[in-house]
Amino acid sequence: MKVLITGGAGYLGTVLTEEILKKYPHAKVIVYDNLLYKQDGLLSFFKYPEDRFEFVYGDVRDHDSLLEQLNKLDKDNDYVIPLAAIVGFPACERDLSLANEVNFEHVKYITKSTKCRIIYPNTNSGYGISDGQGFCTEETPLSPISAYGKTKCQAEEAVLDAGHTSLRLATVFGTSYRFRKDLLVNDFVLRAVSDSCITLFESSFKRNFIHVRDVARAFIKMLGLRTQPHNSGKTLFLDDQNKSFDPYGQAYNVGLSSANFSKLELCEKIKEHVSGFVITTSEINSDPDKRNYIVSNEKLEKTGWRAEVDIDTGIKELVKAYEVFNKSNVKHTNL
Fold it and tell me: Given this model, what pLDDT does residue 246 score?
């Protein structure tokens, strides 16, 4: 089995690369990345032989180069995970054309250019604005409010229309080989450790959270080592009770079900681990990212997958990291 990961040198990609290599001793991971942020988190994987790990320097907007890699894959055994993206509200607003080319066009191109199975990472920010009370399920209409959310949801539509699988990721937290501080939990913990205070806008707005290693585990679930043939010609997947499930053309929410928190609730949780953290709220200014929703992860959990890293464990992990490493290292953001 070969797994081609575009954007594999990023926050999620480096962790996913490690988890695949550990889980599947005969698999090969091919990372295709242009190292936009000069990240070096893949260095430790060059210890693997070429039949286990390969790095290809390339830009996903270069379709000829991308096609060259896609053509090396076996449609019956191999996978494509298109992680390459301009991630986050501010980064996309800074260059809308780039966001569209990377977040949408490259994914659409992959769907038209390979018969391999695609596992796509969408963001559950596509649920947009709600009352923050009723759970969003995979049947909830998507209503993204930012360029980031819109381009990702357009890409998901192309993936699902082509019969592949989308994972709608909650807001990710935790350490990584290519660390990011500009994610909500990571950012709030940094402020608690470095500033001992925070002022929140729209403090009641809610969203769901998930540790980066649990996200990697969700992708591995969809790689589906335990499979069975089906007379439809598809390969069905087995859940933890050996019951088959069919992920083709399906979207799944991927989050920590115990972590549907408002910004204020999240900060109060952080305060349990960082004494002296002062939290204030303000109605004078507003947050341009106005997402407000809670999410049900029941559909994926019914397959036997469960998030394993709770929010307290993740906060403690981040606190330890921030107490050791340089808190002003700007390489740890997408901005």
Answer: 85
| b/e map 58-69, b = 16+ CB within 10 Å | bbbeeeeebeeb
* Neighbour tally for 140: CB within 10 Å: 18
Give all domains of the chain, ordered by start, each with its CATH number: 2-178+209-258+296-307 (3.40.50.720)
Taking phi over 0 as left and psi of -120 to 50 as alpha, with beta for the rest, 154 belongs to alpha
3-state secondary structure at position 320? helix
207 burial via Cβ count (<10 Å: 0-12, 13-18, 19+): buried
**What is the rounded CA–CA span in Å between residue 244 and residue 249?**
15
pLDDT tens digits along 274-317: 999 999 999 887 776 778 899 999 999 999 999 999 999 999 99
Tokens representing 73?
Answer: 């894959």
Cβ atoms of residues 78 and 116 within 8 Å: yes
Instruction: Fill in the DSSP letter of residue 141.
Output: P
pLDDT tens digits for range 139-185: 999 999 899 999 999 999 999 999 999 999 999 999 999 999 999 99
Which SS3 state, helix, strand or coil, does residue 308 take?
Answer: coil
